[in-house]
């Protein structure tokens, strides 16, 4: 039998691998500690000591002090830095001092809440006090719910539950709301975009109910590293915050390796498959008994990599020692896997980013990422999985052939020096605000002069009265409608009305397999469309637009469908502007009219069009914010009309990718549309607009950072090794017979734009 | 851009569940906002007089109170209201602790209670706009209703309602346990500083009773259906309860009591038919001669008695069903057998089981198994035990093919093998 390599030896061997394109070492850090605060309850001290904790890390100490002083704070805590003590200590101390006190913990997912409950309860058992911590979510049995409401000291839940089950029924939670001392919001950085804007309004409602019952809880947030933790936490909670950054937890040395698979097809720049390379690297780690986690972006990939790895190491370690971990697993399965990892029965895990969040899975030594996970914050989160305490750890990111991946591995300094992404929310988005005002009015009537956490909402209340949702009497607005508003408002979906996708392959047993917003459904779920769901092909048999249902059936065909969306943009108002002689960048309100026109059937292997058909769906209208880039006529004269058109299309292609990475959103949340003659100005323009009605601040963000985005776009196109444009940068090279090089033209446009920057900025 | 413009521009993106206001409605609405200055004198108040409504004040607020009397000889469907006194007397004399029993309670203490709300479900924002109840007092049935003239008057409504009924320990409702009462508690919480505490309450929920007796025979156990099919009540010109929220919203705009009249009437009849329903249920449960209850009802009542641990009462009822010739006879016979077995009356139990065992249905299998057990363990007659085991096995095998149920079959196999050895 071969001798097993230690991680150290393995790292040495890997150093010599020629495909390693970059090696970065992160130095370890010794623990920085402070003694237990003298006010800390003796029982808690003892419980900590039992668990081998004799001092606090500096950030935990600061958190305790701030909490005792009554400050609201946000602790920035990398993975495995003992963040739970930042809130558990002050909360438990408070309950020990005054057992009538209550605390509310909010985690973004059910799984995290469950995980935290078991950790919290171990701690409570060690303290030996009569403190009750319960989870309250969709799985909580009805007979237990009553106990939780009345007697739970610490209620652990998620924002969706708070929104639709706790706040609308606040009269059943009187003892919680009367005595609420702390609200803990963990994983703060996940509350961004539409979801974050919704949650911010849920918090506004929570504060309103607390005030009604006479409590004014303190907010404690914890967050992974993002660029703007203070701004985000203050926007989310509507409260002045202090940020704690003096992380005192020890860190082992980390080796961060960028691995670029070898090129196997030079002319097409195609590299060896990431999956194959990941499998090879991971199986070597695992067979040397190095505990490893492999991340893949999709569920299907997880399953593929998992089955291969299991086969490879089956004989040596046993099939069960490597497990998959992804969103679709049942809670029980997930618990079992987490347990197995902690006690060592499981050596390796293949996971989607479901594990990105702080579920504690014990100590892993190596982490392998299948491609760039999409954001810098995600990389750090995933990397944090390896080497959770003192030991050395290895992180390997295996790059894809896609431009983003290539960009990152080839310009590693961008990655290691970049500030992490900003997380933006826009709680005052009118659509979202109105949604939650309805819920708030349902919960308690509004009085004349009442603010909604500082926001004057009287106009909205009048509006809702006109719409016969509220009733105005004696200077108060009362809910006066049959519906239960929270049920119709989902915190996680961008659009209010979604198309439900129903699989009718099994005639006797129709199943809902997913949902999609109406805007996307026009092009992806029209009659006869081929819809891909987790790697399976379905054909849409009928799209019932009125009922918002798409009926699909599983098929096996060798083509996909691609629909044309005719988009019209009307600028309603310009709010901000940066001008230059030949171009300008503007931001404002727009109306988007979109209509799906025709679709093409395209053969999978050859990309040739093998059929087409019309789409009959009504036009959709969307009012939102946009940032647009507009060129003067002189540019067209200079470059030529047809050439300019190609350049605009090409540039849009790249801008979409770069801008969505930059503002930290999903590709579908930010749309990009080029227009040769914009309706409002008649000039060649590229629009970048928020896909959500009213906008959630994405295009605003694009406007603010347009220079960086354009610079990145330029670097990105330049870095691509193609000659005249390829699918991974500006799209397929120009099909026109003109001799101009579209790639060069796109760069020309960018250069003109980059001159805009400093000149003449005015605000309305 | 002003917020107003934005709001109207984005209207299409919002989920506004409100009905589209017609221009006329809009205008009416605005008219009212001008009128509301004189809060003391309710708008269009004299229109309440024909409906017997009068205001009861609490500081600035008021509730509309209606009281209507019905004589005891009032006939509703197949029942006279006076029969309530009769069944309360019967319960007093009956030897049972059945959940519907009023033993130790006067007929006057029963409060037949129902609410009307602005929506379904149990959220905080679902407002109760009508609290109605009826009870027996001085040999008349008095219906009393407390109506909410506007959402800002809630404290007045609860205040006067709670002043009026100080004893809620014998509440009779239809689904009140799950809906009306929790909702009263919810809304009461919102005005708790201004009104008396909610007293302790006890509950007879007739929906549960109705479900027990009729869920297999009626298309649904909605009160209107029970009224029609069981109580002989045919409502004329009734306003369906589902319209109540919309009518109430209209009333709030127009302030015209005529709009809400139908809902008040509906609620009035609801509480009255609760009396009738209570009488009819009680008579069936007490097995009174003067009601013609069906064997199915008797069977279900027997099961209920069994559930509440009154086996003697249950056996009595089962025996009646067994003597008949209805479809649930075999079920009753089997149930009776099991009941007798528990009472250790084994010979009688055996007779029951044998009566079922000769049949060709799923019950026969259970009966055969029971017989096998009796013969094996009590009478020690292994031949007979084996006979019945094999019989059960054969029948179960037939059924198992359809049901794919293996456990019983395996158990039987084990039993047969054991018996063969014992023999």
Automatic annotation (TrEMBL), chain B:
SUPFAM superfamilies xrefs: Ribonuclease H-like, TPR-like
Biased composition (Basic and acidic residues): 14-37
Region named Disordered: 1-37
Pfam families: RNase_H_2
Domain of life: Bacteria
Molecular functions per Gene Ontology: nucleic acid binding
Compositionally biased region (Basic residues): 1-12
Domain YprB ribonuclease H-like: 111-281
Protein name per Swiss-Prot or TrEMBL: YprB ribonuclease H-like domain-containing protein
Source organism (scientific name): Anaerobacillus arseniciselenatis
């Amino acid at each position: 039998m071969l001798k097993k390599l230690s991680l150290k030896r393995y790292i040495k061997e890997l150093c010599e691998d020629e495909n390693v394109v970059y090696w970065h070492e992160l130095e370890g850090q010794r623990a920085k500690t402070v003694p237990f605060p003298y006010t800390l309850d003796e029982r808690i001290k003892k419980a900590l000591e039992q668990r081998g904790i004799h001092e606090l890390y500096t950030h935990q100490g600061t958190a305790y002090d701030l909490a005792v002083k009554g400050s609201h704070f946000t602790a920035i805590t990398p993975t495995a830095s003992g963040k739970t003590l930042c809130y558990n200590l002050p909360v438990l101390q408070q309950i020990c001092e005054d057992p009538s006190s209550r605390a509310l913990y909010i985690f973004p997912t059910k799984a995290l809440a469950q995980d935290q409950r078991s950790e919290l309860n171990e701690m409570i058992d060690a303290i030996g006090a009569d403190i009750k911590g319960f989870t309250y979510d969709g799985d909580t049995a009805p007979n237990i719910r009553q106990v939780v409401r009345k007697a739970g000291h610490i209620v652990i839940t998620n924002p969706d539950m708070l929104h639709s089950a706790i706040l609308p029924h606040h009269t059943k939670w009187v003892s919680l709301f009367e005595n609420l001392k702390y609200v803990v919001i963990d994983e703060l950085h996940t509350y961004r975009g539409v979801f974050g804007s919704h949650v911010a309004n849920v918090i506004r409602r929570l504060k309103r109910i607390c005030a009604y019952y006479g409590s004014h809880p303190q907010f404690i947030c914890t967050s992974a590293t993002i660029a703007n933790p203070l701004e985000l936490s203050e926007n989310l909670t509507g409260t002045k915050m202090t940020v704690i950054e003096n992380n005192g937890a020890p860190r082992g040395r980390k080796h961060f390796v960028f691995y670029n698979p070898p090129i196997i097809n030079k002319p097409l720049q195609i590299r060896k498959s990431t999956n194959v390379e990941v499998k090879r690297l991971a199986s070597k780690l695992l067979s040397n008994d190095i505990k490893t986690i492999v991340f893949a972006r999709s569920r299907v990939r997880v399953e593929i990599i998992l089955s291969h790895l299991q086969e490879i190491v089956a004989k040596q370690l046993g099939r069960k020692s490597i497990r998959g971990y992804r969103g679709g697993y049942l809670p029980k399965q997930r618990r079992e896997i987490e347990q197995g990892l902690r006690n060592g029965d499981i050596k390796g895990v293949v996971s989607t980013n479901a594990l990105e969040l702080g579920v504690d899975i014990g100590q892993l030594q190596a982490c392998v990422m299948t491609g760039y996970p999409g954001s810098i914050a995600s990389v750090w989160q995933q990397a944090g999985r390896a080497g959770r305490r003192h030991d050395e750890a290895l992180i390997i990111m295996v790059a894809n052939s896609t431009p983003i991946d290539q960009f990152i591995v080839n310009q590693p300094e961008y990655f290691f020096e970049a500030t992490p992404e900003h997380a933006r929310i826009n709680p005052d988005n009118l659509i979202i605000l109105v949604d939650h005002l309805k819920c708030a009015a349902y919960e308690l009537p509004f009085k004349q002069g009442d603010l909604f956490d500082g926001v004057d909402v009287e106009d909205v209340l009048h509006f809702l009265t006109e719409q016969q949702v509220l009733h105005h009497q004696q200077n108060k607005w009362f809910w006066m409608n049959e519906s239960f508003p929270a049920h119709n408002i989902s915190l996680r979906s961008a659009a209010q009305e979604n198309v439900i996708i129903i699989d009718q392959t099994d005639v006797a047993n129709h199943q809902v397999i997913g949902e999609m917003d109406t805007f996307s459904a026009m092009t992806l779920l029209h009659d006869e469309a081929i819809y891909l769901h987790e790697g399976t092909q379905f054909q849409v048999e009928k799209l019932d637009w009125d009922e918002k249902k798409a009926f699909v059936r599983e098929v096996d065909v060798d083509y996909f469908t691609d629909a044309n969306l005719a988009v019209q943009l009307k600028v309603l108002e310009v709010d901000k502007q940066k001008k230059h002689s030949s171009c300008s960048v503007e931001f404002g309100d727009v109306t988007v009219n979109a209509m799906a026109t025709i679709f093409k059937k395209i053969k999978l292997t050859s990309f040739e069009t093998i059929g087409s058909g019309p789409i009959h769906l009504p036009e959709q209208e969307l009012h939102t914010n946009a940032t647009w880039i507009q060129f003067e006529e002189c540019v067209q004269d200079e470059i030529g009309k047809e050439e300019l058109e190609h350049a605009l299309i090409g540039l849009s292609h790249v801008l979409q990718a770069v801008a969505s990475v930059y503002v930290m959103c999903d590709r579908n949340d930010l749309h990009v549309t080029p227009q040769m003659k914009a309706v409002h100005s008649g000039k060649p323009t590229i629009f970048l607009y928020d896909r959500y009605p009213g906008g959630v601040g994405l295009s605003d963000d694009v406007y603010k950072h347009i220079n960086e985005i354009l610079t990145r776009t330029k670097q990105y196109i330049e870095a691509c090794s193609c000659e005249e444009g390829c699918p991974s940068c500006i799209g397929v090279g120009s099909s026109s017979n003109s001799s101009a090089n579209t790639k060069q033209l796109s760069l020309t446009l960018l250069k003109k734009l980059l001159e805009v920057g400093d000149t003449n900025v005015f605000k309305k | 851009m002003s917020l107003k413009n934005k709001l109207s521009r984005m209207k299409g993106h919002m989920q506004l569940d409100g009905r589209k206001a017609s221009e006329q409605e809009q205008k009416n609405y605005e008219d009212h906002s001008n009128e509301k200055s004189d809060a003391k004198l309710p708008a269009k108040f004299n229109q309440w007089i024909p409906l017997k409504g009068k205001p009861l004040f609490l500081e600035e607020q008021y509730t509309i109170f209606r009281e209507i009397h019905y004589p005891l000889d009032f006939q509703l469907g197949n029942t006279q209201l006076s029969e309530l006194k009769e069944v309360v007397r019967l319960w007093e004399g009956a030897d049972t602790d059945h959940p519907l029993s009023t033993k130790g309670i006067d007929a006057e203490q029963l409060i037949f209670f129902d609410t009307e709300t602005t929506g379904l479900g149990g959220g905080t924002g679902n407002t109760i706009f009508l609290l109605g109840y009826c009870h027996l007092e001085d040999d008349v049935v008095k219906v009393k209703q407390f109506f909410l003239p506007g959402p800002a008057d809630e404290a007045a409504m609860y205040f006067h309602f709670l002043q009026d009924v100080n004893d809620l320990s014998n509440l009779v409702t239809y689904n009140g346990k799950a809906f009306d009462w929790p909702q009263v508690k919810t809304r009461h919480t919102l005005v708790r500083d201004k009104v008396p505490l909610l007293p302790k309450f006890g509950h007879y929920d007739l929906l549960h009773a109705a479900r027990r007796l009729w869920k297999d025979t009626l298309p649904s156990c909605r009160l209107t259906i029970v009224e029609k099919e069981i109580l002989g009540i045919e409502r004329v010109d009734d306003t369906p309860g589902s319209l109540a929220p919309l009518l109430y919203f209209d009333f709030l705009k127009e302030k015209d009591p005529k709009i809400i009249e139908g809902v008040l009437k509906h609620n009035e009849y609801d509480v009255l038919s609760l009396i009738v329903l209570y009488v009819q249920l009680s008579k069936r449960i007490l097995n009174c001669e003067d009601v013609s209850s069906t064997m199915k009802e008797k069977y279900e009542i027997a099961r209920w008695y069994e559930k509440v641990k009154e086996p003697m009462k249950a056996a009595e009822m089962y025996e009646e069903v067994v003597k008949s010739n209805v479809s649930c006879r075999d079920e009753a016979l089997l149930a009776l057998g099991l009941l007798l077995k528990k009472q250790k009356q084994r010979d009688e139990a055996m007779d029951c089981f044998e009566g079922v065992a000769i049949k060709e249905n799923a019950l026969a299998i259970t009966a055969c198994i029971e017989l096998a057990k009796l013969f094996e363990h009590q009478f020690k007659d292994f031949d007979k035990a084996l006979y019945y085991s094999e019989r059960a096995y054969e029948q179960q095998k037939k059924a198992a093919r359809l049901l794919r149920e293996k456990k019983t079959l395996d158990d039987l196999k084990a039993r047969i093998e054991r018996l063969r050895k014992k023999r």
